[in-house]
Amino acid sequence: MGAQLRVYKRRIRSVTATKKITKAMEMIAASRVVKAQRKVAASTPYATELTRAVTAVGTGSNTKHPLTTQAETVTRSAVLLLTSDRGLAGAFNSNAIKAAEQLTERLEREGKQVDTYIVGRRGVAHYNFRERTIAESWTGFTDEPSYADAKNVAAPLIEAIETATAEGGVDELHIVYTEFISMMTQTAVDSRLLPLSLEEVAEEKAPTGEILPLYDFEPSAEDVLDALLPRYVESRIYNALLQSAASKHAATRRAMKSATDNAGELIETLSRLANAARQAEITQEISEIVGGASALADATAGSDN
Amino acid sequence: MAAELHVALVAADREVWSGEATLVVARTTSGDIGVMPGHQPLLGVLESGPVTIRTRDGGTVIAAVHGGFISFADNKLSLLAEIAELSDEIDVQRAERALERAKSDADALAERRADVRLRAAAGR
């Protein structure tokens, strides 16, 4: 076998092996998307009921709560960025990070100090590499977040928001995550979690103009709100974690699909080249034989003379 | 036919039970509360404790609920809990072991959780 042909054959073998791996990763990601979507769906009843309850207390009473009232001057904000632990997901992480950076920039332009909280090794690595400070970070559960993970993430954030700003607390809480719209579309979004703007929540909850009943609060509106809001934050973070996980798997699936397609294309091109090289080799061999034979014939003819 | 109310018992990550009921008894921070159809709209904070649901056909569903909320409006009752288990899902032996462990570790919260589980399981 000629040197050229051997090189092509070797490359085809290596690309075929890569293709098998990416194909497997694509299928794994596809099955995980479905699982993650199911988890999002399973957490929806709790989230809807909780939102309903928060709206009910917020609109049905005149309670003032630090978590629902806007501070007059916001000096410090917390930004929670949700990324994944593992890469190979196309632009998934860089989109989320970019969205967080834009948000940070905007907040800083408004004269606010920004504390960054990060979930996922990718985001942590990005910030560490640029030597930016991270207030707190969590890793190791982004593929399949549980409610306990969401609680862990929420705890220091709620504590920070309940602390006075002068003592190192924050006035606002923003969250940046990747929203799972469909198998093909996931977008990085940022939203303000706290202070809660009840109008927005109410709109989200009841676009049909449903009128909320006048509730009786047990033991009192303040106590209910006190207990309710941290749960609401946890449930929102849980939902964001789940959506982010689903988006990550969908992005991985897409990235691996295009990698598999590319590998297929590459194999095709390389096979064509290998065939051409083999053909050229054969042609050359024939012409060498023919040339040799005719030279031999010429020589014999010459000796006869 | 007696009036009914629709009950949904939801935990953070799943819907635990839903159906029609005639009476629901739950423990709020200010005491036990019983809700029957036509109750005034209510929103309360739950203590961890067993919740008893009397179903339409006279059966009883008991669940261990650890913290959460009860909300009632329009004859729809929602019990929101971070963790909720039906009594027949509870592994009694495991709960007993957890109770022992919590007692030896002096972990009041874990002890209470295990105790609630056991009481819910005993009532089934």
From TrEMBL, chain A:
<dbReference type="InterPro" id="IPR023632">
    <property type="entry name" value="ATP_synth_F1_gsu_CS"/>
</dbReference>
<keyword id="KW-0139">CF(1)</keyword>
<protein>
    <recommendedName>
        <fullName>ATP synthase gamma chain</fullName>
    </recommendedName>
</protein>
<dbReference type="GO" id="GO:0046933">
    <property type="term" value="F:proton-transporting ATP synthase activity, rotational mechanism"/>
</dbReference>
<keyword id="KW-0813">Transport</keyword>
<keyword id="KW-0406">Ion transport</keyword>
<dbReference type="GO" id="GO:0005886">
    <property type="term" value="C:plasma membrane"/>
</dbReference>
<dbReference type="InterPro" id="IPR035968">
    <property type="entry name" value="ATP_synth_F1_ATPase_gsu"/>
</dbReference>
<dbReference type="Pfam" id="PF00231">
    <property type="entry name" value="ATP-synt"/>
</dbReference>
<dbReference type="GO" id="GO:0045259">
    <property type="term" value="C:proton-transporting ATP synthase complex"/>
</dbReference>
<keyword id="KW-0375">Hydrogen ion transport</keyword>
<keyword id="KW-0066">ATP synthesis</keyword>
<dbReference type="GO" id="GO:0005524">
    <property type="term" value="F:ATP binding"/>
</dbReference>
<dbReference type="InterPro" id="IPR000131">
    <property type="entry name" value="ATP_synth_F1_gsu"/>
</dbReference>
<comment type="subunit">
    <text>F-type ATPases have 2 components, CF(1) - the catalytic core - and CF(0) - the membrane proton channel. CF(1) has five subunits: alpha(3), beta(3), gamma(1), delta(1), epsilon(1). CF(0) has three main subunits: a, b and c.</text>
</comment>
<keyword id="KW-0472">Membrane</keyword>
<keyword id="KW-1003">Cell membrane</keyword>
<comment type="function">
    <text>Produces ATP from ADP in the presence of a proton gradient across the membrane. The gamma chain is believed to be important in regulating ATPase activity and the flow of protons through the CF(0) complex.</text>
</comment>
<comment type="similarity">
    <text>Belongs to the ATPase gamma chain family.</text>
</comment>
<dbReference type="GO" id="GO:0042777">
    <property type="term" value="P:proton motive force-driven plasma membrane ATP synthesis"/>
</dbReference>
Automatic annotation (TrEMBL), chain B:
<keyword id="KW-0472">Membrane</keyword>
<dbReference type="GO" id="GO:0046933">
    <property type="term" value="F:proton-transporting ATP synthase activity, rotational mechanism"/>
</dbReference>
<keyword id="KW-0406">Ion transport</keyword>
<keyword id="KW-0066">ATP synthesis</keyword>
<feature type="coiled-coil region">
    <location>
        <begin position="76"/>
        <end position="119"/>
    </location>
</feature>
<keyword id="KW-0175">Coiled coil</keyword>
<dbReference type="GO" id="GO:0005886">
    <property type="term" value="C:plasma membrane"/>
</dbReference>
<protein>
    <recommendedName>
        <fullName>ATP synthase epsilon chain</fullName>
    </recommendedName>
</protein>
<feature type="domain" description="ATP synthase F1 complex delta/epsilon subunit N-terminal">
    <location>
        <begin position="5"/>
        <end position="83"/>
    </location>
</feature>
<dbReference type="InterPro" id="IPR020546">
    <property type="entry name" value="ATP_synth_F1_dsu/esu_N"/>
</dbReference>
<keyword id="KW-0139">CF(1)</keyword>
<dbReference type="Pfam" id="PF02823">
    <property type="entry name" value="ATP-synt_DE_N"/>
</dbReference>
<dbReference type="GO" id="GO:0005524">
    <property type="term" value="F:ATP binding"/>
</dbReference>
<comment type="similarity">
    <text>Belongs to the ATPase epsilon chain family.</text>
</comment>
<comment type="function">
    <text>Produces ATP from ADP in the presence of a proton gradient across the membrane.</text>
</comment>
<keyword id="KW-1003">Cell membrane</keyword>
<keyword id="KW-0813">Transport</keyword>
<keyword id="KW-0375">Hydrogen ion transport</keyword>
<dbReference type="GO" id="GO:0045259">
    <property type="term" value="C:proton-transporting ATP synthase complex"/>
</dbReference>
<comment type="subunit">
    <text>F-type ATPases have 2 components, CF(1) - the catalytic core - and CF(0) - the membrane proton channel. CF(1) has five subunits: alpha(3), beta(3), gamma(1), delta(1), epsilon(1). CF(0) has three main subunits: a, b and c.</text>
</comment>
<dbReference type="InterPro" id="IPR001469">
    <property type="entry name" value="ATP_synth_F1_dsu/esu"/>
</dbReference>
<dbReference type="InterPro" id="IPR036771">
    <property type="entry name" value="ATPsynth_dsu/esu_N"/>
</dbReference>
